[in-house]
Amino acid sequence: MTIQAPIIARRSPGPQGEKIITLAALAVGGQGGGVLTNWIIDVAEANGYHAQSTSVAGVAQRTGATVYYVEMCKDTGRMPVFALSPSEGDVDIMIAAELMEAGRAVMRGFVTPGRTTLIASTHRIAAVSEKVVPGDGRADASQVIDALGLAADQVVAFDMETLAAKAGSVISSSLFGALAGSGALPFPRDSYEAVIRKSGKGVDASLRAFGLAYDCAKGDAAPPATEGVKPHIRTLSVPARLQAAWHALEARVDRLPAQAQEIAGLGLKKVVDYQDIAYGGQYLDMVERAAKADAAPFDLTQAAAKYAANALSYDDILRVADLKTRASRHQRVRDEVRVKDDQLLQLTEYFHPRFEEFTTTLPARLGAWLQQNRRAEAFYTRRLDRGRRIRTDSLMGFGMLWVVSALRPWRRSLLRHQTEMAHVTAWFDQAMDIAATDRALAAEVLANRRLIKGYSDTHARGLSKFDRVMSALPMLRGRPDAADWMRRLRMAALADEKGNGLDGALKTIESFAA
Amino acid sequence: MAERSFKKEVEQLRMGAGGTFRGEGILAVTKALLENGVGYVGGYQGSPISHLMDVFSDAQDLLAEYGVHFENSASEATAAAMLAASVNYPIRGAVAFKSTVGTNVASDALANLASGGVTGGALVILGEDYGEGSSIMQERSHAFAMKSQMWLLDPRPNLTSIVEAVGHGFRLSEASNTPVMMQMRIKSCHVHGHFTASDNQRPAMTVSDALQNPKRDLSRIVLPPAVFLHENEKVERRWPNAVDYVLQNNVNEFFGNPASKIGLIVQGGTYNGVIRALNRLGLADIYGETDIHILCLNAVYPLCDSQILEFCDGKDAVLLVEEGQPNFIEQSIGHMLYQNGRTTVLAGKGVLPMAGEYTGKRLIEGIAGFLRAHAPGLLPPAIAKTNEPEQTGIPDLSKVVPARPPGFCTGCPERPIFAATKLVQQELGEHHIASDIGCHLFSIMPPFDLGSTTMGYGLGPASASALQNRDKTGKRSISFVGDGGFWHNGLTSSIGNASFNQHDGLIVIVDNHYAAATGGQDVLSSRAANKSRKTNNPIAKAVEGMGVKWVRQIDRTYDVTKMRDTMIEALTSTEPGPKVIVASSECMLNLQRREKPALAKATRDGKRTVRPRFGVDEDICTGDHACMRLSGCPSLSVKDTGDPLRDDPVAAIDQTCVGCGNCGEVADAAVLCPSFYQADIVSNPTASEKRRASRTARIIGWLQSRRDARRMTFA
Q1: Considering only CA atoms, which of B354, B344, B361 is closest in space to residue B281?
Q2: How many CB atoms lie within 10 A of CB B339?
Q3: B693 touching A, CB under 8 A?
């Protein structure tokens, strides 16, 4: 049999012109797809339609992608033959309860130009595969949004999750409202609302979400702004006696190339908050050194401003103790977990300091000596190496962390600081050395700092990835595409945990460098 | 307690003649059983038929009113064996399970049942788990019908037809002394529709009546020489009687115009899809009126030769729509036509795909292909000649849209078990891991990627039995089995086997207090009180009873450190024989369904309540996502910080967090990072608690401002 191009045949209507309407809903398990389907059946039946629904239950509650399918037809006294599952090119209304599910509907051929009304919530629920990437593994939403517009006859797409949350309800209500507001079904608004009322659970909130989505879908109201990033508002506080020194640092920022001032300003605040004013000076030395070697558009200076700030603010126990005991942090937690005024908040922190963290938090010589001491390590492992649950809403727990944070003035003498600074210096010097011949490559070398993150084993793995990426330098230096390759190596290193992709990329470089 | 309650829906089961019954396919089946005077009902849950068991369960009182005995069978084998009550007594019995896996388990009893034959109608309702949404290997129940000679009904997927098929099933079974299977595809189990009800019938004879008046008949017992008699009886008496019943009662249906030169023979279950395809080809209206002649086989086994030959007479070509492979029906009909010297062309597989579900697209392409070859004049010109242009311009999203396989729910107690397993492997190296059937099989998916095989329900440890290391200090196998699988088959086939053969592998019994994957049905070891079932039988005791010496009970799986250390102990212990860890924590879905409303009510009533939640300090999180590689929890995800100094999104926990503690425990056990915190929100705190809290807050505030007075902060 020869392979035929897909047949896009249309359903023919009944003798009185009555048509079967097909509707499919793609949801992530737990989103209430079942509730939505029942509502749609009820509203169809209430309007004198035959309706039939099917679903693939079973995994519906278990976070996978799930399809619900409804067919309906005006009741003329005979029973139509309804199909039991959606067919490619034969879906009139496609409801997708999440952006990537809308993309999946397009991929599966359920969204057809000239036929399908697509009702999609544009919010994201990251799939496991997007979350486990050590870098940023999230799918490119813009590609999907573009495709929706091309594939569908009519698109009703906005963030229905945020809208439902605003109304104190769940997404099934806002999807139902968007369906009603889209006008894709020939049913009046009040018949939808009657169905919600009849369902008897959380009626008011459901109706609110329904109404908001209805207006957006109809075009009577602007959909909510896409849930953007809401960075924490940070406030700078400078004690009177530090004002002068601080202003001097600020003045140095102002003398940097304009392109780098904003990021250097942020970096400066970060390192001063991390340690002290002098540390800010040390930071600006580095940025100024990069600026001196740089020229417009000053990418190298910007990279230096960003990554030197991160490198100087390495994550040690002092830092963690400091962050965990701040007033602003306490308030942020209250907001995040939504503690009401008449409720109390108990906070437990999960710590697990190993021998390594313990020794590196000691004065350098003592720490280094202890690290060589097998018996001390054995003792620590046996007696002290376990998870600590610290209650920071109690005086005892808070006090402990507060004391650790108060070690800050002595940080420079601790073993960890010396190790970190040796590494930072080597890295930065190398970048500056490269900058003399290849500024773009130098900027990429600075950006490799992104690979070093996390604590304990994760930190060690980050360091090893950093070293492996940097090992390509001798092979790359002098090549016109060196910077591009360095960037590719870094992205490969961020793509998986073990760095298998990185190994492949390194092999490629070895092959052409040989 | 099952995941879904049908308490409200089962009230409809009392409906009398003439009423319009609305509901799902499975509910309609239950009503049909009552209308047909069923005497006893059993079965084992499993998609797509799980809810049928839940309906039976929720209808227990009603069933009892009619004198109908109902039980939750221990396995499909038990359910099938239960039908023995219809061998000697004229009592109608029905059992339900998932097929083909359930039928596999049941086939010993089914074969015995089919050999001796039945007096009362014996009906096996099969949830045919085939095609999209299926969770098992793709096979056909049809083969079981043929091998044991049981009849197989495949009704059209609408409630009226399904209800009629139940009646036919019992009567056909009685007319031919043969058990009957009725298959329902995934979607017809869950199809919502309506039918006109009849009155319920009490069974003519109840199981109690039978016990009071026991009967036996040596010729019905499956032992030589009776077995030879049975075989002859099957072909000489039972088969012809069945064919007579099917023909006389019009079990199979004809549609369309008998004068048509072409015809379609379809399995009942595919009828709606076929009509839709014809409709889209312009050859049928939405009510199924068509000029093409259709023979709809609601009984797919046995086939009635005379009916099929008559249908084919005068036709140039016939298309057989037979889903699944091998193409048993096509082979039979081809044989029939050949033997009888007919020249009608038989098309089937070839025009239609050999394997896979017959979706709308495949049917329309198959039927159009058949018509192009044999009746091109019938097709609308556009489709007969050229097709509508292919869709173009829609970008390929397959590289963008991530796969979304099912995984552990938020707060699932099985997640920490597999997080611990991953940590064990980090410490001791990769191991051979044998998986089983159940929610815990989600371990094979990211982020855990654990498990090599799954060989059947309760057979996880059995499937590792060959993998016995001769080096006693070498690596051992790790196998998993759930509590559902354990009681289904695992106790004997896995644990008993390992104990008897002194297998030294590690067996982890994942005990979430329910048969959770199938919808949270109770099992023997469930901890809840069940008014009609005996629960609270500890798994560990059963394991010890099998002779296992090394048994560890862990009552809080969320303790990842303990989980990991116990597993390491098992894998390094010098004790011979199997090491069994019973890892118990309640299924979070069930727990939340019970506790959440109770907690909300207590809070409303002014009682002191504590609600735990987890969070991440985004300033401390470095965005490596190591925590997610050990979790995959839906409530733990990534978010942007909006900080220009940072490149990677950080971890964040959303409002759906149930505070199970896995994040913190994993961060601790794997020594990940200190960014997790547990926030216990105390509602209606006591007065002294409030005083203490405000005093502490004042002191903490003083300490904070003292520190901040001496330094610059930007937070």
Answers
A1: B361
A2: 10
A3: yes
